DNA sequence: TACACGTGGTC
DNA sequence: TGACCAAGTGT
């Protein structure tokens, strides 16, 4: 089974591999480990289409690990703005500095796993793709493909152990990187969550879920909890052609990012409504935004007085350079709303 | 283990 | 249009 399945998949990959900016150029033996690492971190829970422009921006601005290690953290955070899961950017800088200090990338899965931001998936992916180490590379694509190939009925996340064991039986010793990427390409192009193109699949003759007749039913997933809706306020404070921005705490929601001051809304509860400066406020509209685990209705309050002096740390950011502030999408929406009605 | 953690596209 | 989904990690 091992060699048969792997051969079918690798033959398919030789004909249908996607051309992606972080993959090795034709003729090159292996891709740049820096490119593999950067792309894999960006791709965590993030679509290829969303990643490509960020990958190009990062590799142009910081062409290697040493350049990224030397970059000020807040510049990296601002460059990451809009991509989401901002702890990835903070860990990226931390890992770059560790790599720079230690003289480069480790080549084993176990050593890679110690770097901040590298979990089981990413460490295995880099070991396989950048260093041709045999590894069990398990992402959502692989879980889906394996659950179908072996007709694993146990619901996720409980089925993870069985999926790893099944994957182990078909993972070859050779072409580790191609095999891992072929699994993910198969999952994203043919064996998709809501749609399985079995007639085009290299495994159509050996797939247990196809044999059973309803591959899209798998994998079974545990029911998800309902998302609460929270309410909060962000405050637009303007003075002399600049707006007051704060830096959010390093941990938690939008950690370390520049933002408009707000009233402390969170996934756990509504904001207090308390403004960072006294005075007259007028309503500036509402921004609706959905996070992974809650919905937010964030009202925008616009300071209507003259020369306000906010309490606490922050900075006056010139309005004509607001696009360089690196606001996460929620606050970029709020700023666009404020600017549209001025 | 279960939950916190972003965003944009899809149906 | 709201829920699901996408190359997961940290706690």
From TrEMBL:
Keywords: 4Fe-4S, DNA damage, DNA repair, Glycosidase, Hydrolase, Iron, Iron-sulfur, Metal-binding. It comes from the Bacteria. Binds 1 [4Fe-4S] cluster. One of its GO terms (molecular function) is purine-specific mismatch base pair DNA N-glycosylase activity. GO terms for biological process: base-excision repair; mismatch repair. CDD domains: ENDO3c, NUDIX_DNA_Glycosylase_C-MutY. Transmembrane segments: none annotated. The keyword S-adenosyl-L-methionine does not apply. The keyword Zinc does not apply. InterPro entries: DNA_glycosylase, HhH-GPD_domain, HhH_base_excis_C, HhH_motif, MIG/MutY, MutY_C, NUDIX_hydrolase-like_dom_sf. Belongs to the Nth/MutY family. Residues 42-189 form the HhH-GPD domain. It comes from Aurantiacibacter xanthus. This is Adenine DNA glycosylase. Adenine glycosylase active on G-A mispairs. MutY also corrects error-prone DNA synthesis past GO lesions which are due to the oxidatively damaged form of guanine: 7,8-dihydro-8-oxoguanine (8-oxo-dGTP). Its EC number is 3.2.2.31. It catalyses: Hydrolyzes free adenine bases from 7,8-dihydro-8-oxoguanine:adenine mismatched double-stranded DNA, leaving an apurinic site. Its cofactor is [4Fe-4S] cluster. SMART domains: ENDO3c.
């Amino acid at each position: 089974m091992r060699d048969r399945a792997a051969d079918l998949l690798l033959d398919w990959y030789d004909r249908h591999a996607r051309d992606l900016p972080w993959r090795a150029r034709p003729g090159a033996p292996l891709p740049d480990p820096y490119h593999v690492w950067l792309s894999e971190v960006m791709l965590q829970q993030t679509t290829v289409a969303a990643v490509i422009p960020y990958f190009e921006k990062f590799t142009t601005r910081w062409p290697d690990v040493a350049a990224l290690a030397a970059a000020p953290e807040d510049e990296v955070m601002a460059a990451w703005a809009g991509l989401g899961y901002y702890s990835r950017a903070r860990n990226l800088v931390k890992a770059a500095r560790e790599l720079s200090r230690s003289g480069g990338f480790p080549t084993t899965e176990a050593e890679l796993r110690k770097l901040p931001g590298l979990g089981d998936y990413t460490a295995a992916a880099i070991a396989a793709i950048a260093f041709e180490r045999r590894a069990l590379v398990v992402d959502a694509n692989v879980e889906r493909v394996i659950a179908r190939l072996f007709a694993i009925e146990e619901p996720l996340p409980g089925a993870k152990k069985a999926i790893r064991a099944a994957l182990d039986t078909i993972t070859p010793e050779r072409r580790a990187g191609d095999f891992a990427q072929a699994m993910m390409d198969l999952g994203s192009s043919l064996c998709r969550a809501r749609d399985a193109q079995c007639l085009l699949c290299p495994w159509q003759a050996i797939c247990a879920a196809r044999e059973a007749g309803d591959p899209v039913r798998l994998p079974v997933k545990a029911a998800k909890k309902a998302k609460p809706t929270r309410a909060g306020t962000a405050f637009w404070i303007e003075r002399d052609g600049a707006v007051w921005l704060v830096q959010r705490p390093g941990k938690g929601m939008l950690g370390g990012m520049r933002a408009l001051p707000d009233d402390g809304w969170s996934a756990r509860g509504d904001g207090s409504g308390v403004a960072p400066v006294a005075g007259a406020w007028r309503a500036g509209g509402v921004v609706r935004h959905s996070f992974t685990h809650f919905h937010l209705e964030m009202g925008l309050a616009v300071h209507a007085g003259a020369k306000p002096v906010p309490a606490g740390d922050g900075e006056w950011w010139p309005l004509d350079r607001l696009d360089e502030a690196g606001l996460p999408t929620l606050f970029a929406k709020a700023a666009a709303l404020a600017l549209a009605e001025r």
